[in-house]
Design goal:
Layout: E1 3-7, H1 11-20, E2 26-30, H2 34-43, E3 45-46, E4 50-54, E5 59-62, H3 65-69, E6 74-77, H4 84-95, E7 104-107, H5 120-128, E8 135-140, H6 145-149, E9 154-159, H7 163-173, E10 178-183, H8 186-208, H9 213-233, H10 244-255, H11 260-269, H12 274-279, H13 287-301, H14 306-316, H15 321-329
Parallel strand pairs: 1-2, 1-6, 2-5, 6-7, 7-8, 9-10
Antiparallel strand pairs: 3-4, 8-9
Length: 336
């Protein structure tokens, strides 16, 4: 691949720039913060979001979207879910210009848009389709930015309804430390990647309360059941949720110490307030906004999601962590 634009220089965007640099001639990395962009250009290290990892010389940081998109064959967006629509609206002035070839779009953002309840690929499509017909794929799976950045083996999913596009991106993105599997079930991949963050908050609460391994195993198992019910109600395939973008991502996020969403839950379980926790965080924990959107979507689809309901009560109605556990355990008994 000759030219890749990565839009977003948080931990995940930076890690992807490092990992994909070995199979790409030139990567332009769009950075929101001018000071960070200047520092990246000088030191080749993202001290703000991914300290300790050298960014290869063929990765060019820029704060200008037009510069980032110039000549890009693939546009890979890695920004928080609540910024995806506005970023694509800003990029339209460049994307609508004639280019040397077709641009391909990849979303690596996990979340649901709060107002519309749309998945990220739907937000991108809705923004671009009035102007042209975009080819869109989704990148998801069990990954921590720090591990990808240092070259530890990782396996992820590249999903698109366009099978040719998924196979093309699989070839372009895969390397010795980054293995991609294709999937046509975009809905399942995106719902799995979004809602697992809600369950990870619950897993963190359990750890913060010191409830032990049995409770975590139960949360992961019943959480997967919730995610699968919702995804299938939205048109996904059940088997997708048993794969990397479902179970794999859920296990990692619920058990890994590097998980931001799990960390939020741990601190809530220890008695800290949500505003206090958020004030101390540099990066976004997508599960907080996703909890409200997921519950809305579940009600819209007529799907029961008790863990999500209790996380909503904890995050938005100041229900105590102990009460959320008690309410889950005292639910009406039923067959599995």
């Amino acid at each position: 691949m000759k030219n890749l634009a990565i839009i977003g220089a948080g931990g995940w965007g930076t890690a992807l720039s490092i990992r994909l640099a070995q199979s790409t001639e030139r990567i332009r990395l769009w950075v929101y913060e001018p000071e960070l962009c200047e520092s990246l250009a000088k030191t080749r290290v993202n001290d703000l979001y991914l300290p300790g990892f050298f960014i290869p010389e063929n990765v060019e940081p820029t704060t200008d979207l037009a510069t980032a998109l110039e000549g890009a064959e693939v546009v890979l967006t890695v920004v928080p879910s609540h910024h995806v629509r506005s970023i694509y609206e800003q990029m339209l002035r460049v994307l609508c210009r004639p280019s040397d070839g077709e641009r391909l779009f990849v979303s690596a953002t996990k979340g649901l848009e709060s107002d519309t309840l749309l998945r990220m690929s739907q937000v991108i499509d809705e923004t671009l389709r009035p102007h042209f017909h975009p080819r869109i794929a989704v990148l998801s799976g069990p990954t921590f930015a720090r591990e990808v950045g240092r070259g530890s083996p990782a396996a992820v999913v590249i999903a698109s309804a366009d099978e040719d596009l998924a196979r093309l991106l699989q070839k372009r993105f895969s390397n010795s430390a980054f293995r991609l599997y294709t999937n046509t079930d975009v809905t399942g991949v995106e719902i799995g990647g979004s809602v697992k963050n809600v369950i990870a908050i619950a897993a963190g609460v359990s750890d913060g309360l010191g409830l032990g391994s049995n409770a975590i195993a139960a949360l992961i198992t019943r959480g997967l059941s919730e995610i699968t019910r919702l995804a299938c109600a939205c048109g996904a395939r059940r088997e997708t949720l048993a794969g990397l973008a479902g179970l794999g991502d859920l296990v990692l996020t619920c058990t890994g110490a590097l998980s931001r969403n799990r960390t939020v839950g741990v601190e809530l379980g220890r008695g800290r307030s949500l505003p206090e926790i958020l004030q101390s965080m540099r990066t976004v924990a997508e599960g907080i906004n996703t909890t409200a959107a997921t519950l809305q979507l579940a009600k819209q689809k007529g799907v029961e999601m008790p863990i999500t309901e209790q996380m909503y009560a904890l995050l938005y109605h100041q229900c105590s962590p102990q009460d959320t556990v008690r309410k889950l355990m005292e639910r009406t008994l039923r067959p599995e």
